[in-house]
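Components:
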Amino acid sequence: MSGIYIHIPFCKKACHYCDFHFSTSLQNKEALVKSILTEIDLRINYLQDKNIKTIYFGGGTPSLLSEKESFLILEKIYKLYNVSKDAEITFECNPDDLSDDKLKELKRLEVNRLSIGLQSFDEEELIWMNRAHTAKESEASVKRAQDRGFENITIDLIYGSKFSNITNWKKTLDKAIALEVKHISSYNLTIEEKTKLGHDFKVKKEIAIDDEKSSEMFLEMIDRLEKNKFIHYEISNFGKEGFFSTHNSNYWKGEHYLGLGPSAHSFDGTSRQWNIANNNLYIKQVSEKTEAYFEKEILTEKERFNEYVLTSLRTIWGIDLNYLKTNFNNDFVKAFVNQVNNYIKQEQVVVKDATYTLTEKENYSLIK
Ligand SMILES: C[S@@+](CC[C@H](N)C(=O)[O-])C[C@H]1O[C@@H](n2cnc3c(N)ncnc32)[C@H](O)[C@@H]1O
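Structure:
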């Protein structure tokens, strides 16, 4: 089974912290969708397994697509692939786009999982982030989606800005729990160089909070969410039983996926490739039907090993020693066992049934 990711590189406003690829000019939206349709044809032989378990519209802001645009992309995928009847179809949405009409449209498109970018419940912080919605709108959008029959809803939250402290973070978590969403992704704010925040930080107009405070909020989040039946299944992801993200879990488990659209990444088991992160060049180069719109890297054994160790350690499934033994040279296995023993001694990693997982003890120093 494989997954398909579609990157929709448009946003109404530029969030001051975000360095994902997007444009705030929507002029080329139609042309870009056409290019994605062409790319679907060009990449038809990329996935060996044409059985599709997940389709994920990410961004950017996919909720800016018109119904027709989303329909054309889905129609083409359904035509060319064998999409399972119970496939997980996720749409990333911003709260300000989730009108009643939009929700009806998403239902007609048979989208069955919404990922809503709430980020914060603090009005001042939302303005500082340059978000296009208020906290009230965020809460209302989740309720509206639930009323329209969307059960599988995940929200994104960011902690660790200068606005956050342990007291208001507890309130944020309680609000998120009260919304009765099934899944929460929560990220520690990173200051990215090529963003407004990155620039302001460089010229000392902005400050970063220290790691100890972020770590305290991280541990508080684990505690509060676990008490409310969320399972902490990946460093930044919490889901109720039966509501883990299948699409993202497959990334972490090393399954194959096709990434469409500017900046999208793809993985076929032996190589990774990534599309150009420029809308105009993507449109031009896809129309020329050459291979100029992507770059490709064949993974060495060392790279495959490092990826497996890093991604597995972030999840509750952990690192499987038997998998290491069957898939990698004995030198790699020996080096791993040697190094991991130090972390076991420090109680930062535990091993059970030949599977290594992180503990909560000071593990922020391992994650960084
Ligand atoms: C690229 S965004 C797209 C989702 C949606 N358009 C939105 O803005 O709500 C994916 C998620 O990454 C997270 N994110 C982006 N930049 C981040 C940063 N610098 N630090 C922490 N989290 C970040 C946000 O929580 C965001 O919802």
